[in-house]
Amino acid sequence: MTQPTPAIVAQRAVRRLPRWALLLFCIAYVLPGFVGRGPWKNADIAAFGYMQELAQGHTGWLHPVLGGMAPESDGLLPYWLGAWAIHLAPAGFSPDLAARVPFGLLLALTLTATWYGVYYLALDRRAQPVAFAFGGEAQPKDYARAVADGGLLALIACLGLAQLSHEATAHLTQLAFGSLAFFAIAASPYRVRWAAGSLAVGLAGLVLSGAPALAVFFGLGAALLAMLEMRQAESDAPALRAWAGIALGITGLAALVGWMLDVWEWRMVAPSAADRSWQSLGRLLLWFTWPTWPLALWTLWRWRRQLASPEVHRHLAVPAWFALVAISATLTTLPSDRALLLGLPALAALAAFALPTLSRSLSALVDWFTLLFFSGSAIVIWIIWLAMQTGFPRQPAANVAKLAPGFTASFSIGALVLALAATLAWAWLVRWRIGRHQAALWKSVVLPAGGAALCWLLLMTLWLPLLDYARSYAPQVDQSIAVMGRPTCLSFHGFSRAQVAAFQYHGDLRLEPATGDGHCGWLAVDTDSVSTLSTVTDTARWSLVATVARPADRKDTIQIYRYLGS
Prior knowledge:
Layout: H1 19-30, H2 43-55, H3 77-88, H4 95-123, H5 140-157, H6 161-164, H7 170-187, H8 192-208, H9 212-230, H10 237-260, H11 278-288, H12 292-302, H13 304-308, H14 314-332, H15 336-341, H16 344-352, H17 360-390, H18 394-403, H19 413-433, H20 443-459, H21 464-471, H22 474-484, E1 489-493, H23 497-506, E2 510-513, E3 522-526, E4 542-550, E5 553-563
Parallel strand pairs: 1-2, 1-3
Antiparallel strand pairs: 3-5, 4-5
Helix pairs in contact: 2-3, 2-23, 3-4, 4-5, 4-7, 4-16, 5-16, 5-20, 7-8, 7-9, 8-9, 8-10, 9-10, 9-14, 12-16, 14-16, 17-18, 17-20, 19-20
């Protein structure tokens, strides 16, 4: 028996968010963070290092190495995308910016796939609002569009999405292709060909990005859902049976591709291992998925009768499965935050179905908390920027000087104009939201999304020089070059992939693992690995010249040695 829906929505509440406004919103979120900065430590510049090696022909496409080290991720697709972009970029185009172009498109794909996925889930008759006795309830497509707008805004509002979705790494490709698989399953009853093609691309992309297990779980979930639906919709049984077969076939092919490419490798760890604990995982789940997790829990509570019903409710089952797989990966694999990233579109979809059930008091609580949190954050960003530019207030200026010694602030009129425009837009949005005449379904998530976009844009404009200085290896590389002059090559010992990539890119050097012959003349050693230097070379032949620290982290130091000869 179909349980009555808890969604009670009038037609006037499903007013459309203007498409130009939604598009501008997405552009303002996607572009900052991809444009205007250098590669950041650690995963960002390490991935870029492999992309540059591939683009310059210094390593093989199927087995890329950087400083003699293979990539941490088994998936090669992210490195191929970046290398192709560098190779195709016009002359004079910055290689690191060129490498980020396809990843900006992948973030845009994530937002698009999430919107359409939520839209098709909301079209399901079990997700539709209650029909009024005398009419006036929301029309199906209008209701689906409003819920999809809310889902997209909820995704943008997620605090954990901002930084990781703007790094050119395998985790962003996994997010994009996982979102495409989510869209495919949601759209399968309406656009079978599009769904089949999207599922094939999504699962193949996950495998080639180093997440074959997730691809298999997502594909099996699609087939299982179709099989369960066959029991309750006899008239649609042939179509559902065909879709289940398609999903199983695509999943099998994806698993086979992963086996042929040898990317199957389990990285399961206990929550208590590797500096992990249930407390740290709990904190990660709380802040990384904010503000979607309270709304997602509210959805599960308000739609609990549908969840307990023997009848399958697609709008709950699909995002719940994707979220469950991602959270399970978060609890059992490393790095946890990057595994949780794949669950954000699904959690945003669940949060979207809370919107038709929110009371006015609960919606007002979300609004006021969001208003205070993001307005306060924006004020802090502006005050610290003012302190960097003028030295006043003194305490923030002193804090910046202490945390980033050697940093010299620079002024950009373009960044200031963008930051002022974003701040004024936020003020207008707040004024619009507190107007009592607003009845749009998505209104409860417009302030969280707007606040997240505002703070991210302010950070990527006003604070970008500081963040570039603090999160880059460039200052440390520049100091090292000043000590060594301009050698033709540099031997290294104990370097991470990120350090090798940084010295090759910022220092324009060729790095080689340390050997006993000292033919490079100079040797750089990570301080933590000095004790093992004697295992690769005769330390008596080397003279310590300098110890160079990364300004923003004095514990991140390297030692520079000059070769004395035999």
